[in-house]
Amino acid sequence: MDGGFGQTALLIFIMVAILFGAYYATKFLANRGKRMTRSKYIKVIDQIAVANDKQIALIDVDGEKILIGITSQNINMISKINSDRIDVEVAQEKDDFSRPAFFSKIGDFIKKTRQSPYELQKARQEERKKRQANKRASKNEDESFDKILKSIDERKKQFDSYRKDENDEN
């Protein structure tokens, strides 16, 4: 072999290195963004976009819940929410790129990649079986059709001989 395996191994190594680099870069940027928006006393509980550049947000300011309206030019307090009327917990953000989840996804991908030739072979075998069954069915249909044609020919011959016999008698 003229280096085909070595080149393939090198390309796989480079792809894995790029994946890990992208993973850690994403994680770093996400943590950096969290630090920039993290506040000791103010937490955004929920928010929803109601129009282009217009949002409504529910925030927690030192235990007090406040509903605010946000536009591109302005932020207005809509109302204070009585904690007795509404029970809202500040959601802890879950890290979607946790190490076990990331590696299990890679493991699942590798398993699927390894199994794909077998699944392809199985699908091909099933397709062959379907084709053979269709051929048998069409062969049976052809045989039945041939029997019907033979029966029709025999009836025609009988009818012709019957007519011939009648013509001979007359």
Topology:
Elements: H1 4-37, E1 42-51, E2 54-61, E3 64-70, E4 75-81, H2 99-169
Antiparallel strand pairs: 1-2, 2-3, 3-4
Protein architecture, described:
By secondary structure, the protein is α+β, with helices and mostly antiparallel strands. 62% of the residues lie in helices and 19% in strands. The chain has two helices and four strands, in the order H-E-E-E-E-H. The protein has a four-stranded antiparallel beta sheet with strand order 1-2-3-4, with no helix packed on it. Strand 1 and strand 2 (54-61) form a beta hairpin. The protein is elongated, with a radius of gyration of 39 Å. The N and C termini lie far apart (93 Å). Mean pLDDT is 79; it is low at 88-97.
Summarize this, please?
The protein has 170 residues and is α+β, with helices and mostly antiparallel strands.
- What overall form do the CA principal axes indicate? elongated
Are there runs of 5+ residues with pLDDT below 50, and where?
Answer: 88-97
User: Helix fraction?
Assistant: 55-70%
The overall average pLDDT, rounded, is: 79
Instruction: Give a count of the beta strands, DSSP E runs of length 2 or more.
Output: 4
End-to-end Cα distance, whole Å, is 93 Å
Question: Spatial order of the strands in the main sheet?
Answer: 1-2-3-4
Which class do the helix and strand fractions yield?
A: alpha+beta
User: What's the SSE pattern?
Assistant: HEEEEH
- SS field, number of helical segments: 2
Task: Quote the beta fraction.
Answer: 15-25%
Largest sheet, in brief, is: 4 strands, antiparallel
Rg: 39 Å
